[in-house]
Amino acid sequence: MEFTKKFLRAKSPCADGFRWFVRNVEDGSGYQEALDTLVSAGRVEDACWLLTQFGPTNEVLSVDSLDAEAIVFAGTLEVRGGIDVDTVVQAGRSIRAGGGIRAGQAIVAGEDIRVAGNIHSQGKLQAGGDVRADWGMDVQELILCGGDMRAAWDLICHGKLSLTGSAFVGQDLIVHGGLECGKSLNVGGAIVGADSIRVGQGILAGGAIRSGMHLEAGWGIKSGESIHAEGSIKAGESLSAGDEIRAGAGYGVYAGLSVQVDSWDSSAAVNAQRKPEGLMSGCWAGARVL
User: Fold this and answer.
1) 98, 127, 195, 203: which could form a disulfide with 178 (CB 3.0–4.6 Å)?
2) Which residues have a Cβ under 8 Å from the Cβ of 50 and sit 6 or more positions away?
3) What pLDDT, on the 0 to 100 scale, is given for residue 209?
4) Own/partner pairs for 158-164, CB < 8 Å, 24+ apart?
5) What is the per-residue pLDDT across 173-213, written as a single tens digit (0 to 9) for each?
6) C-alpha dihedral over 282, 283, 285, 290, to 10 degrees?
7) N-term to C-term CA, the chain
8) Residue 256 CA to chain centroid, in angstroms?
């Protein structure tokens, strides 16, 4: 793909960006060459905008390690070691690293992100496909994932976490904003959400589940310890806790919302150390048999 002034103007760039581009990028320059020129000049936001407008390529950049101010690459970025950038690492397709990734502002991929170490972003983490870290994840702002998300250790998100697929976390999942998961949520340790937790399918946690507002799952919810919410607790099928189940003051506990009442004894059982206050639906079954 070659860039000309006419070609760029068709995308309605901002006046300042267009003037700079005209003065500094020759007509007929290659797509990636234009991105590199913008990044080298410190115009990283303009490079990201350009990539968003013109989309990914099938190019692959393969290097041993990456340590830079920023990188915006239109294809797939493959790094045999780690990635360490001061601001943004963005790829039109996938990002793969044999070590970890650290970015001062954002980590963005049009497709998958897969790393053999930690993922650490001082800003957002965004992927059009799956995100996988063989260690843990620590993201200071929001996480947006268009596929499944896997972290072998803790996953900590200081903003909102939203994913289309399922999440698998080996240790604790801690989210300081809302948590929205399109499919299932499977966590080896505790699940802690400062706002509402909404999951399209089931929730399984080895430790406690804590929600700062509502807790909702389309299927069942099972916790190795307690289940607490400051708002309501709603499960499409069963509710099971190793300790207590407690909703917020004035809110109810609901099980079996997605099954017929005649099936509550088998598909909407509620297990806990004692019967939850405000149990509005489901079949109370007593303490869980280990």
Assistant:
1) 195
2) 34, 35, 38, 72
3) 98
4) 159/124, 160/195
5) 999 999 999 999 999 999 999 999 999 999 999 999 999 99
6) -50
7) 62
8) 28
Reading the block at residue 231, the tokens are 């708002």
Comparing CA positions, the residue from 162, 167, 107, 105 lying closest to residue 132 is 167
Q: Select from 194, 210, 187, 203 the least CA-distant residue to 240.
A: 203
How do 29-30 and 2-3 pair as beta strands? antiparallel
- Four-residue CA torsion sign, 217, 209, 128, 78: negative
- In terms of Cβ atoms closer than 10 Å to its own Cβ (0-12, 13-18, 19+), residue 223 is buried
C-alpha dist (Å) from residue 207 to 26, 40, 101, 187, 221: 58, 47, 28, 8, 12
Tokens of 34: 């234009």
Dist CA 220 CA 207 (whole Å): 16
Q: In what order do the strands lie in the sheet with 137-139?
A: 66-68, 83-85, 101-103, 119-121, 137-139, 155-157, 173-175, 191-193, 209-211, 227-229, 245-246
Torsion of CA 167, 173, 177, 183, to 10 degrees: 20
The predicted model scores a pTM of 0.91
How far is residue 180's CA from residue 197's CA, in Å, rounded to a whole number? 6
The amino acid present at 3, given as its one-letter code, is F
- Asked if residues 101 and 107 have their Cβ atoms less than 8 Å apart, the reply is yes
Q: Are 238 and 269 in contact (CB under 8 A)?
A: yes
Q: Cβ atoms within 10 A of the Cβ of 238, count? A: 24
**Residue 215 and residue 1: Cα distance in Å, rounded?**
48
pLDDT above 90 as % of the chain: 81
Taking a C-beta distance cutoff of 8 angstroms, is the pair 133, 149 a contact?
A: no
Element (H, E) at 180: strand 179-181
